[in-house]
Write a structure and sequence with these properties.
alpha/beta; 6-stranded parallel β-sheet; 7 helices; 3-stranded parallel β-sheet; TIM Barrel; binds fe (ii) ion; globular; single chain; 11 strands
Length: 240
């Protein structure tokens, strides 16, 4: 029986990440994430401290902002994996990418120039925050036709989905998997992002967790152990 822990502040206790971070900007120098090796090593140390043993490194791929090629990402992943070993940091790094939903992504899919991971060939993609892009269904269809599993990055973040649960269910039916940023579970009830993350989790719609860390900071996730005052309930969620 599915049961949840509710804290004194009325939020559910964030679910465990089960050792894998599926979305992280840890690779140095490729995007707005870690700018250098030492920052990346600090992120790695923080992940290990959180119980993470595997991280999917997902630098942004945006044609006119972060035009990272497949080769540059794979090279950076190899080099940084070697550095993790050298520093004896127990973190396995898998190369990935966070593809921006744009025409350029369709061209990459057509050329099979995509970094996917896992048996399911997961491909992480993101969209603009405010409005649903026209290309969303086409990208999903193209990825699936090419044998990939589309994973929508931090799905709780998009304003056009925060009030459209039906569209969320529809995307799920189309075969989209949902990645939620774990720090979102710590957001207060007034946060639509936090509320959608919790709703998705309670409805069993979260497929992958990520930190989306860009720096080694806990500012947004507040992973403090506030375990006092928790109680069990089968229906803790209320949409206020
Ligand atoms: Fe990201």
């Amino acid at each position: 029986m599915f049961s949840l822990l509710v804290r004194r502040d009325g939020l559910i206790e964030p679910p465990p990440m089960d050792g894998t971070d599926s979305h992280c900007h840890i690779l140095p120098g490729l995007d707005d994430g870690a700018p250098d090796d030492e920052t990346a090593i600090a992120i790695a140390g923080l992940l290990v401290e959180m119980g993470i043993h595997t991280v999917v490194a997902t630098p942004h791929v945006i044609s006119d902002v972060f035009p990272n090629s497949t080769a540059s990402i794979l090279d950076a992943a190899n080099r940084f994996s070697a550095l993790l070993s050298e520093r004896k940091i127990p973190l396995r790094l898998i190369p990935g990418a966070e593809y921006y939903l744009e025409k350029h992504l369709l061209q990459r899919i057509a050329k099979d120039d995509i970094i996917a991971w896992g048996k399911e060939r997961f491909v992480l993609f993101e969209s603009p925050v405010e409005r649903e892009p026209m290309l969303l269904d086409e990208v999903v269809f193209s990825l699936k036709s090419a044998g990939y599993t589309p994973v929508f990055a931090h799905v709780e973040r998009y304003r056009y989905l925060q009030n459209d649960y039906e569209r969320i269910r529809e995307l799920k039916r189309l075969g989209v998997r949902f990645q939620v940023n774990h720090p979102s579970f710590h957001l207060p009830k007034i946060s639509r992002r936090g509320e959608l993350a919790r709703l998705l989790y309670i409805k069993g719609l979260v497929d992958l967790f990520g930190t989306d860390f860009h720096r080694a900071t806990m500012n947004n996730c507040q992973q403090k152990k506030r375990r006092t005052g928790m109680r069990r309930t089968s229906s803790p969620f209320s949409r206020s």
